[in-house]
Specification:
Layout (H helix, E strand, L loop, with lengths): L1 H28 L6 E4 L4 E2 L9 E8 L6 E4 L2 E4 L8 E7 L1 H11 L11 E2 L3 E4 L11 E4 L10 E10 L3 E2 L5 E9 L4 E11 L5 E2 L4 E9 L2 E6 L4 E2 L2 E4 L2 E4 L5 E5 L5 E6 L10 E4 L6 E2 L5 E9 L3 E16 L2
Parallel strand pairs: 1-11, 3-12
Antiparallel strand pairs: 1-5, 2-3, 4-9, 6-8, 6-10, 7-9, 10-12, 13-15, 13-25, 14-18, 15-16, 16-17, 16-20, 18-19, 20-21, 22-24, 23-24, 24-25
Length: 318
């Protein structure tokens, strides 16, 4: 009899608990699932998985002098329903979100000034739609400073008529990069002479990228090494000069005005770069580049350790 009583009491407790959970669930659900207004993916989200805010990155490609480039801001009415009426979404800068993003991701992004980047003060999700149209854009101007890592932190300030703003995606960081006209994928042929070590020779043809470092400068990335570097042949094997990568600077006519070492003039190991004025040292009509330059390392040999005479054949955008 005692055993039967325990079963009855246990069953009663389970039923009571189940009843409470159902009541609680009903209270939490309210009138059922609601739509929320939030930033929707625009480009690739390249933030770390632990980042509170997303980073939507855009490669805007070549930005010529006087030219501007734009990309979309997508805001979504997310949930089961489409917008019941036109929904106006007010946008604003959220510096606090960028500060947090930089701290969480180890980045040093700077919010661009209005002269560099503009965005609409408000955008509209049309009645019957779920996402804003492509008329909502961020525009990047020719005043872009290549020496600054820009990212635009936006937040949804308000929604009219009133709707719930997402707690997770009510703010987003928009990163963007642009390239100058010398940036691209190249095949390099030519000659190289190391005046201090005859066992080190040129390794041609080389598959390389020239990567934008400023409005009129690029640095060499050797794709055989996978970093800013210049590969060489050492005893027939693949090698490279440590802490050395040529950085080329052009004038408005396309002439190369300087070659320096990306890692410093000199780098910690004493290596620097210098333009050899005997070369053509220019970009050609077919977008190929001819350049002569030296790698200097006075602790090993003077005046120049290594001589390069190279032709960069343009393959296409990288």
């Amino acid at each position: 009899m005692k055993y039967l009583l325990n079963i009855i009491l246990a069953t009663s407790a389970i039923l009571t608990l189940n009843s409470c959970l159902k009541k609680r669930a009903t209270t939490l659900d309210g009138d059922g699932p609601r739509n929320i207004v939030e930033f929707k993916n625009t480009g690739s989200n390249t933030a770390a998985s632990s980042s509170f805010y997303p980073l939507y990155s855009q490669d805007l490609g070549l930005l010529k002098p006087g030219q501007s480039k734009s990309f979309n801001i997508n805001v979504s009415y997310s949930g089961q329903d489409v917008a019941p009426t036109d929904i106006t979404v007010e946008l604003g800068i959220d510096q606090a979100s960028l500060d947090r993003f930089n701290k969480e991701n180890g980045t040093k992004y700077v919010a661009p000034p209005a002269s560099v980047c503009s965005y609409p003060a408000s955008i509209v999700i049309k009645k019957g739609q779920r996402v804003t149209t492509d008329s909502a854009k961020i525009t990047v101007s020719p005043d872009f400073d290549y020496n600054v890592s820009y990212a635009l932190p936006l937040k949804i300030k308000s929604v009219t008529p009133s709707e719930t703003i997402s707690g997770n995606f009510g703010s987003a960081v928009y990163g963007f990069t642009i390239r100058n006209q010398y940036d691209g994928h190249y095949t390099v042929t030519g000659t190289m002479v190391d005046h201090a070590n005859g066992g080190l020779q040129g390794r041609y043809p080389m598959d390389v990228y020239l990567i934008t470092t400023g409005s009129n400068s690029v640095v060499l990335q050797d794709n055989a090494i996978g970093s800013f570097s210049h590969s060489i042949s050492s005893g027939g094997g693949l090698s490279y000069y440590g802490s050395f990568a040529p950085k080329f600077t052009f004038d408005p006519s396309g002439a190369i005005t300087s070659v320096v070492n990306f890692f410093g003039q000199p780098a910690g190991n004493g290596r620097s770069a210098e333009l050899d004025p005997s070369g053509a040292n220019k970009i050609n009509a077919d977008m190929s580049i001819d350049v002569n330059y030296w790698m200097n390392q006075p602790s090993v040999i003077v005046p120049h350790r290594t001589s390069f005479s190279e032709h960069f054949k343009y393959v296409g955008p990288r």
